Amino acid sequence: MGTFFRMRGICKSYFVGGEDAPVLKNVDLDVEPGEYLSVLGPSGSGKSTLMNIIGCLDVPTSGEYTLLDQEVEEMDEAGLAHVRSREIGFIFQNSQLLPRLSAQKNVELPLIYAGVPPKQRKKRAAEMLERVGLAERRGYLPTQLSGGQQQRVAIARALVGDPSILLADEPTGALDQKTGRQVMALFRELNDEGRTIIMITHDMNIAKYARRVVHIIDGELTEGGGTEDA
Amino acid sequence: MLSSLRAGFVMLRECVAMSMSNIVSNRVRSLLTVLGILIGVTAVIALISTVSGVSGSLSSSFSSMGAGTLTVNVTGSDLKTGMTAEDLDELRAMDIVDGITPNVSLSARVSRGGSYDTGISVSGRNAYYFQTNPDAIERGRTLSFIDEDNRTDACWINAEMVETFFFGVDPIGEKLYISGVPFLVAGILSDEQAESVSDMMSGGVDIVIPYTTALKMNNASAVTSFTVYLASGVDSEAAADEIEAAMDAMFSYEEDCFTVTTMSGIEDTMEEMLNMMAALLAGIASIALVVGGIGIMNMMLTSVTERTAEIGLKKALGALPWQIQAQFLIESFLLSMIGGVAGVALGLALSFGLCRALGTDFALSWGAIALGTGFSAAVGIIFGWAPARKASKLNPIDALRSI
Nearest Cβ partner of A115 from B10, B315, B403? Predict the structure, then answer.
């Protein structure tokens, strides 16, 4: 099985206050299909920037990033949108559901942009909600759901397009311990099914759920080895 | 190709649904935003439809009043200042002519007893005038050829003159002084006297006297204005040509001695004037549409700022820039069209009410409806373009940072 993605010498800096502020420094990272990787680092270490680059939401200042044997640098706006739509499932810290849409409609959203016909879209969204245990809450608005349920809807939304990789940014950051553990159990279940997962976190207790942990401090990545389950 | 078209169609349908959802969820703000367009379109539709109705009514009035008539105004030449009785007889003898009535106008001081009034419109006519307009007389006798030939001092007065000078007295047979000359009232003109268009345009006639008497009072010997009544079934344009040809001979083919005006010519001029007025008023009203468009632009820019996180999220989920742009553009278009359609309905209702109040026919102007809706659509697209483009250009990272 080939490399899922490969990063070499990735640097990212922002122009702040008249000078370049480096956020990522020469990051090298290889991820194989089916891996469950955790990027662990304190606030401001550059882990979200790394996630944005992996997720094709941002481009590096320098370095090479190859995703599914394609040079990301060479992709245009439409190509990047296509990759985001078909290959990547995002899970954000605060679930980021659209408040005016029901759980079902929120889950359908990525499929709308992928051009999936309505009938098929509804069926797949319903299946995903069932998968995360919220089949009976599909008509609920986000405000009518608990934090844990909202995050599960966000996971269903990330999964509905059957992406190659799940990218989760502090997925338990806004959840209590018990709900956080439930979400982590779900992640482990998904990984057991062969789904590639990359999780960004500042919490060692959450990071240990992954099978591989890398540390990021001041924009520099260091391999942290496997966890007890790896 | 077919599947991408279908995907595009599905996408557009979703954009419409999402836009409607946004409009409904911000209903108060949306309502206030569409008010500008609604007022603008209402004004444009009401003005154009009302003017169209008035124009139609005027046109039919003109046609009924002036069907088969020509108005001739003579400026004359050095050798011949106007039309003599013989000239008029010559024209009357033509096959196409049914009759001719001169119009000798004068503005007079009228008095009786201690009361008087100035600036009274007096018109010198002949017997044919009352023959053609039998409803013009309410009571009394009509003007006869004897009055015409003998230059009698008989007069026919309207209700206003009766009220002014003969309050409580039967005026028939009573004396009335016109420019100091004593006249005997021979008849009362009816309120609905079928005057000629030229009478109506000059503000109406208060008193009718024999035209020969009027010429004497004006110290004139020739008629400079008259109406030609055409024989039944004669085309007025062709008749005008024949009359012109006959009069050219009378004026020794000198140029610019007279003008022959047909009713259709007057109608065309009137319609042209009304259309110009409608265009001018609609132009002024369309300023409201531009203001409404700015309102929409303002709301859409606010909406883009408020929904930055939503835009970022949608981009992260795979939305293309054109899809984001389409959603905002459709939202702006729908907002404008809601205002436009409501404005068309309100404008037509207002126009209907105005036409009823003015006593004219209501004319449903499809052109105005097309203009109102077309203009609304254009305003929605033009003023929604910049905010939609701004939304589509947002960097997903910057947008997501606003979460």
Answer: B10
> How do the pLDDT tens digits run along chain B, 403 residues long?
666 677 777 778 888 888 888 888 888 888 888 888 898 888 888 888 888 777 777 767 666 666 678 889 998 888 888 898 889 999 999 999 988 999 999 999 999 988 899 989 999 999 888 888 788 888 899 999 899 889 999 999 999 999 999 988 899 999 999 999 999 999 999 876 545 555 555 557 899 999 999 999 988 888 999 999 888 888 888 889 999 999 998 888 888 889 998 877 777 777 788 778 877 877 887 787 888 888 888 888 888 888 888 888 888 888 888 888 998 999 999 999 999 999 999 999 998 898 888 888 787 778 878 888 888 899 889 989 999 998 888 888 777 765 5
Measured between beta carbons, the chain B residues lying within 8 angstroms of A77 are 320-321
User: Is B400 close to A92, i.e. CB distance below 8 A?
Assistant: yes
- CA B69 centroid distance within chain: 22
B314 in contact with A, Cβ within 8 Å: yes
Which pTM value belongs to this model?
0.66
Task: Read off the amino acid at residue B192.
Answer: E
**C-alpha to C-alpha distance for B47 and B27, rounded to whole angstroms:** 29
Are B321 and A90 within 8 A, CB to CB? no
Beta-bridge partner residues of B258: B74
A85 vs B10, B313, B317: nearest CB: B317
> Is the CB of B10 less than 8 angstroms away from the CB of A81?
no
How many Å is the maximal CA-CA distance in chain A?
A: 54
DSSP strand E in B79-133: where?
A: 97-102, 104-112, 115-125
| 8 Å CB contact of B321 and A77 | yes
